[in-house]
Amino acid sequence: MTDLTQLLHALPGAVLLSRNDVIVYANHASAALLEAASPQALLGHTTNEFVHPLDKQRSSERIHRVSESADAGAGTPNKPSEFRIHTCRGNLRMVLISSVAVEVDGAPAVLMCGMDMTHQSEIQEQLRESEQNFRRLFESMQDVYYRTDAQGVVQHVGPGVRRVLGYEPHEIEGHTAEAYYPQSSDRDAFKAAIATHGEVADFSGQMVRKDGRVIDISISSHALFDHNGEFAGIEGIYRDVTQRKNLERELQRLATTDMLTGMTNRRAFLDLAERTYAQSRRKGTAMCLLMLDLDHFKSVNDRFGHLEGDRVLVAFTQAVRAQLRGSDTVGRLGGEEFCVLLPQTDTASAAEVATRILAGTRAMRLETVAGEAFSITVSAGLATLLASDKSLHRLLDRADQSLYSAKRSGRDRLAIDVSTDDPGALTL
Ligand SMILES: Nc1nc2c(ncn2[C@@H]2O[C@H](COP(=O)(O)OP(=O)(O)OP(=O)(O)O)[C@@H](O)[C@H]2O)c(=O)[nH]1
Fold first, then answer.
1. What segment(s) does the record annotate as region Disordered (predicted)?
2. Mutate to test the pocket of ligand 1, among 291, 301, 313 (most ligand atoms within 8 A of CB)
């Protein structure tokens, strides 16, 4: 027994022996755990003295049960359980305790062993706190987190989906993501990008909300692979960028529109004409430019004032617009000079349009705010894209020259570029 006592003293785990709840033996590790001066200092104290008031009842019940479980000898140890313990110095510790009924020197006793879990408990608390922080962040995130399987079926979607798409997460989970894309081409382009690069960042697309409204979204995602390297799905986030897109669209509109007439401004018109020119050359399709310039517009300003002049410009551009197809574009090149871009149009058709514009302008019944009636006329110069044209500027120049010739020969008329080899080309 003496040898065994020496061994128990050397044991790193805390061991206590109690009889009628009074400590009759304590090893060095238990003195260290309870911050007692020595093992002897613990003798005569009850074990319950050290237990935190909130854990006292549970502790007494367990010791009572374990004592009763013994039938004339060693009983079954109870399951280890954590208890808050106050040390002799008043420090709080979390201790994992297990006890068993024993018989020592012919009398029943309870043998307890304890392990200090204070540190582990702190780690758990930190983990819990970090988990709670993560959850809070996840719940309040503006972005919607989502994960699909290899077939595109949504496995998980974050709570942000309520705000962005108006659905509860469970209404989305289990369905394929395709259902929420108004244009399948968006989803196809997204899948192709993921297949090629394994990820996409700030990918633009559109989605349909539960209430039917189409919103602009931006997606950042990456492909998932299983441990065999097989494609296992997609994980990422998307966010509602409708406001940003609307703002961008508005800025784009402002940057490309002439404020007075609402027609395309000079820079945007020339950009579009450049693109149309390149496309016509590539595809070998026809294209015409029609230059328009109001006649003696200075006299309108001089007679009625600049504001009346502005109203004439607005009325004139609306009258021009009314004669055109949706694919034609009116650009305000400056002042009272306009240009009409007529893609996929031959000279004869463009001349018909020009003649209608001239007649329409002539027929406009204008009236000042003060009620004075007047009318205006316009001169037009038409040029058709030629195989020999090396740049858009060549075409613009020829349309300009024609306009000059219309002005010189009396105004209120159309002049067609004479260098055109189109058989429908005429100088009116
Ligand atoms: N009201 C108004 N007038 C403008 C605007 N831009 C240019 N103008 C005027 O348009 C007139 C153009 O005059 P001119 O270039 O001499 O040409 P015109 O009088 O139309 O004569 P022709 O072109 O030779 O038939 C000038 O009086 C400009 O002040 C505008 O935004 N608003």
1. 54-82
2. 301
